[in-house]
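[Automated response] Your request has been received and processed.

Submitted sequence:
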Amino acid sequence: MLKLPESKLYIDGVIRRAAGDRTYEVIGPWTGEVVSKAADASPADVDAAIVAARRAFDKTDWSVKHDYRLELTRKFRDLLLAKRDRLVEIARHEHGAALGAMGPQVDMAIAGLSDYINIFPSIKWEEDRGTRETYGFKTHRVVAYEAAGVVAAITPWNVPLYVNLGKLGAAFLAGCTVVLKGAPNTPSMNYILGEIAQEAGFPAGVLNVITASDPATAGEMLVTDPRVDLISFTGSTAIGRHIMEKGGPTLKRLFLELGGKSCWIVLEDTPDFATMCGRSMVINHAGQGCAITTRLLVPKSRYAEAVAALKAAYAALGDNWGGFDAPTHQMGPVVSKRQLERVLSYIEIGKKEGARLLAGGRARPDKGGGFFVEPTCFVDVTNDMRIAQEEIFGPVLSVIAFEDDEDAIRIANDSIYGLSGLVFSGDVERALRMARRIRTGTIGVNGGLCITGDLPFGGYKHSGIGREWGREGIEELRETKAIGIRR
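Generated structure:
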């Protein structure tokens, strides 16, 4: 028996099956068994979605009816709140989220959309730049801000609702129309947004949702089609590079939120030093998050204490993870057999590189029929090791020693990534000085939250281009037009 209803396509305001009634099976991470079926979009379906989005942008007044868009986005948010229980069930069965991880999976996503709604009144659509005399006559200048056009939103499987709402909320409020293509693993969390858009009364073509078993074919169409104005992509750095290359011939505008290898830095003067080190375990959603801190940097002067604290923390955790009905468990399985094999391969790489396995390191088939791997910690890691440089996307922590503040900054910045991070110190100003010098798009000081719906999110270096969420997220999806009026 399927755990979730079959998901369909949402194109031009109509919920429908894929051409030829094509479907594919969705495997549940907890059991390794089929949990649902999804519409398998054909190239003709993708084309229909692009046509609908293009028409809705070019032939309607959607992009200029600001108050109307705000009203519909509020309805959209209210329906999400009303359907929270269903969203939780989708997150559990489809991408393996534990009940203790529903904050980022569901609640933070909806709260982020509320932040967009609250920010919207501050968005300027026109700015008077005054009059200037040039060449003997006066020109009154106005700068207008307009919707970018048709957005192809290509989203991942790890926190699909959060990422989807980050893109859709900004697009709706900026006045864009959207083709949403989610990951094959998580079709239900994409399809339900089409259902909600229809129930909220969105005009046909403003949102179109497609799912496909082969992410490459649909993604390639969206990235290369000249009718698509902007690609908003969240996923791996490798695919981000590919999108940049393929979008080049049609000069696509790009927003890319890519990988990360962020640092959790605990300075020697941190109160409750051992506690702060122990909290760095990578367990939330099995480490499947681009902004999760997977490198722990601790001072050499207190390295032995940090290792002892971690050993105790992992021992205390024990088997308090991986329970489907456990309300406090933050960690379930990884999303697929392929991801399980990837994580296990990196654990083997860490051993071969000479890092010491302090905790975990094994697959756990006894947890169920799905894709479980233990929370894992390597110590005696050097920053040149692959486990310290490459994004594993699993519950694997690498512990690295540093000499002093300058060395910690050097290690933190010695990465192709720059997405997030944390710095802890008993001296807030010292931690803040360090945070300002770490090249990353978000960073928290002493546990301060730097990732919320009203703040811009994005990365430096290979972690991406542009910003999502906050006022900047809406502005990312707009064009700027200068108008000169001769008086």
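Summary generated for your ticket: The longest helix spans residues 102-119. The radius of gyration is 23 Å.
If you did not submit this request, please reply to this message.
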